[in-house]
Amino acid sequence: MPPVIFTIGHSNHTPERLVELLREHGIEAVVDVRSAPYSKYSPHFNRERLARLLAAEDIRYAFMGDSLGGRPDGDEFYDEHGHVLYGPLSRSAKFVEGIATLERNAERYRLALLCSEADPTACHRFLLVTRTLRERGFDPASIEHILGDGSLRPETKLAFQGNMLEDSWRSPLSVSPSRAPSHSSIA
Q1: What pTM was estimated for this model as a whole?
Q2: Number of domains in the chain
Q3: Cα–Cα distance measured from residue 157 to residue 20, given in angstroms and rounded to the nearest whole number
Q4: Could you tell me the CATH number of the domain that includes residue 40?
Q5: 15 class by beta-carbon count within 10 Å (0-12 exposed, 13-18 middle, 19+ buried)
Q6: How far apart are alpha carbons 167 and 181 in whole angstroms?
């Protein structure tokens, strides 16, 4: 049976609700793909607190926002408007290594990629990470997105950014660290 990768957004859940959603789907490991896993709005999901919460529930925690995050270091990964250029990012050595690590661990654990956005279609975990997995041959039928109500939305049921020109494959919002965005999940 091929491995399954889940994704989840912590959104505005309580810590208890997040754990409940993870338990409901048998998640054994959470891979945090937030570039900056801190928030004044949801401090209970700050990196260290989240790691402790999950450890207390016997769920493994791995931070991979430094390799699979949606706000990379390096001006070469941003356009003039502050959007992340997913094409160049997806080919960077750090990102490729992160994807390979993710694929290996999906063979060992029932894991979920965690970011902050509730809607996977508005998050780089779908727009970049699972798209890259698909392009590398990972079966899209083996990617499931856990929604806030506990239901699953299969990758195959989400609208892809299909065969777009590379210069169009970028983050939907400006997130450049040199340009102050008008929104932020790390605010």
Answers
A1: 0.89
A2: 1
A3: 24
A4: 3.90.190
A5: middle
A6: 21
